Every structure is written in C-alpha cells, then in structure tokens.
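FW: tagging you since you asked about this chain on Friday. Here's the raw sequence from the shared folder, copied in full. Didn't touch anything.
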Amino acid sequence: MSAGAPLLLAALLAGWSTASQSFEFENVTNAVVDQTASSSYRFDAVWTDFNGDGCYDPFIFDHNNSTTSRLWLHSCNSDRGGTFSLRSNNQVSYYISSPSWVLGSGWMTVLDFDGDGRQDFWLRHANTPAGRYLNGGNSGSIPTFSEKQYGCDDRCVFADINGDGNLDVVRSDVAVEEMISRDEILPPRTSRGYVTLTADLNNDSWTDIVQPGRGGVWQNAGGQLTWRNTGFEGGMIVAAVADVDNDGDLDFFSYAGSAETDGGFHGYRNDGNFRFTEMPMPEVGFQSYYTNYGNLVAADLDNDTHVDLVISGAPSASSDHTVLRNNGGWSFTVETNPFGRAGGGNPWQAAKARSSIADYDNDGRLDVLVTQINSNLAIFRNTTTSGNQWSRLRFQGSDGNSQAAGATATWYANGSQQILAHQHVVIDNQHAMTELHAGLGNAQIFDLEVTFPNGGDTFRYEGLTPGSEFIIYTDGCLLSDWSRGEEIPRDAPAGCEAGGAFFRSGFER
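HL: got it, structure written out here
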C-alpha cells in the first residue's frame, strides 16, 4: 500500500470529498443592497445580528468619522437570499457622542458583554480609551444602541478565564478584568507582545491565552495561568486558530513582523499539550504597516471538511485579499484575486482590507463581506459548486457568557471517531466566531460532540442529518427546529427532556 493510501482511505470512510477546484464568488452588492452610502474612512466590515432575528446584517464602521458608519438590515424574508436596507444613525444609534472621551474606531468585535442575549459591540481606538456599545433592544425590527461605555484600551480579547461563568477582558499586558465591573481578576504579566486571541489549545475545556509576540501561550488550568514557550513568531494582531488537519487540536496561524518591517505568514501544527511544529506555508503578500490592519478568518468555503484561510490585508497585483484553499495534508493553493481592492478613495487607505464571513443567504455556503473601494462595502455570494454537506450550530451559554466563548464542537463520521471538523467559539480582537459552520464532505449522517467551557458538560448527539442549524443549551438540549427569522430562545424550551425535536444522549467523555 502506498504512503498516501491510508490517508485516502480515511478520507473516504469519513465521507470526505477529494475533488478540488477554485472557489467561485459573485459580487451581488448592487443587486441586494438598496444603497451603498459612502463612509468618510471605511475601516471594518462585519456581519452582525443586532436585532436577533438570526439573519446577518452588514455593518461598516468608520475610522475617521463614526457618524458616517453604515448598517444595513437584512429583510430576512427568504431562506435563499433577501435584500438589505440602509438604516440611519438616528434610528440605530451606532454612534453615540457622549461621553466624548470614549471613542469607537478601528477593529470591531461583536459580543454580548452584559449577558442579556443581545449582540453588543466593542471597538478599539489607537490613542484613547475604546468604546463598547450596549444594545438596548429593538424598535420593531430595528435595533437601537442605548449607551456607550468605556471598553478597553488597546488590543483586548474576551473569554471566561477564571471559570465563574462570566466573560472577562484580557488586556495586552495579560491582566484579566471582570467584564462588567472592570475589576482586576489577575494582575499584569508582561507588556512584551500583543495578545491575539484566546482558545482551548489542549482540549481541557479551559481557555488559554495566545501571545505570539512573546513566543507562546499562557496555559489556563482551572483559572491559573502558566507560561508555555511554543516558538510562535508574532508581533502583529493578524492571527487565527483552526483545526486544518482534522486531528482534534486547534492549529495556529499568524503574521510575524511589525508596522515598519517585512514579515511573513506562519502556520504551526498543534500536536497536543502545547507542542507546536512550524509547517511550510505558501508565500503570502506582506505590506509594511498595512498588513497589520487586515484580519485572518478560518472557514470551510467549499464544505469539503478542509478549513480554508482568508487573509485580508495581504496585497497582490489585483486584490487586497488572499485565500489559501486547504487541499488536506497541510497543502494549500493560493487564490489571490477573489474580492478586489479595499479601503477608501485615497491610496494610503487602499490596502486596509477587512473581511467577515457568514452564510447570509442560508444556502449552506459561506459568503464574504469586505470593505471595498468606491462602493463602501461589497457582498460576495459564494457560488462554489461542490455538492458537499454542511452543519451549523450556536451555543446558548451561561447568563454572563451567553455565546459560550470557549466551547468546542467536533463533528464525526457516524458511528466512529473519524473527525470531519473541530471548531471553537472565539471572541477575539478580530471578528468573533460564535456561529460554527462545518463542512461535512459527502457525509449523509454524522455525530456531534460538544463541550461547554471551564469544566462544563460534554454531550454527544448521534445520527444527525446535514443541512440544519442547531442551538445547543448548557443542559444538553439540542434545538433542531429553529429557523432564521425567529427569535432564538434564550433558555432551553420547556419539555426538552421529553425528546421530539430535542436530543440528549447521556454521553460522557
């Protein structure tokens, strides 16, 4: 048997699709958006769901003049598309002037920081305290932000570090604050090297803190942090975790370099227990200063069970976005022209590219929202034809961590331990990944295992079918009959133990 035969056999047993092709995207902006009102300095593009109807809305935040930020609301009247209508700041209050010393510009994170189940948002500002905006609820279908508060200065990430069921703020010096009171839970550790994200890297259910600028990770064991040198190269905030080889461990990807120097793209294979091996990666563009304004998103764009990487702010001759198509076996194909130019009308803005990924039209394929020159935003509908299956889920966590940051999910081929996908709920200083989308290849039936954070319960669900979006609650109830356009129940519906639309296996790790 050849060396590649076992891998091929495993792929076939898991229902993987072995065919590879270029991704296909259609720019549908003019067809689905009622108007592409300009912004003074378009900086970040984020899919949001501020009104809680399960349908994704594009939000462009302005770095220079927040009053010219733009939010479009999805009509949410069709499972296969719909349109987007611009809503003014007078209606939504996504810019609030007072207090003036709390500013919002630059990188955006969408999160529920007060535990009411509604999406709030946090914005970093480079020179003054950043702002966080409190979602005050809906007027009809239109969300309204009721208050702007002091958020966190510099590049902050979010997770429940001490395991009390509430979100915490992790600052760049690795000090940990309680989200609401801002009381310091753990003191500063170091000022050298940005914290880029939090993730459970050794599958113990406790969320670790990744600090590549210092070359490693703060291991979280029961709320106690211990330094682990992993050999990471960093210094920039463009980073992500993703299980690209489907071995059940989250791998790490980052740009090294600085605003003034050349840098490179790095990938590290996670062997478990904080042992990382740097792997060969394709040459990806780097532009001093501008690349650090971009972001990195891991997503399976063709549902073949291989997680792809979308890098924004890595310029090529025709685009400010680069896609690394994952062929399996740590082999990637570079696609450099999918989404065009970013930024505003001035050359110095043009390379400041950002992207956000979600399935806005609910066809099972992940679509891309980007900042775009001339049109302010661009929506690229994924039209890749693969025939592959998919599954999506959201967690409903504790009152203080309603999005269950730190939870993990693993999709298996039915009746086996063959991993089809392994993902983690992350709320970092890029874009939060709180709705998990898994490509399942040719699998017609699958099993799902989920673990809630910080020693939380593990549940396994067997014999599930693809093409659905599940809501999973802390007691193990799995809601399978929810559809977009309906409000997601914050608490597990009554009767969940009785079966029917809900399943609980009693599985224990």
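FW: The chain is about 5% helix and 40% strand.
HL: agreed, and The chain has a mean pLDDT of 85.
FW: great, closing this out.
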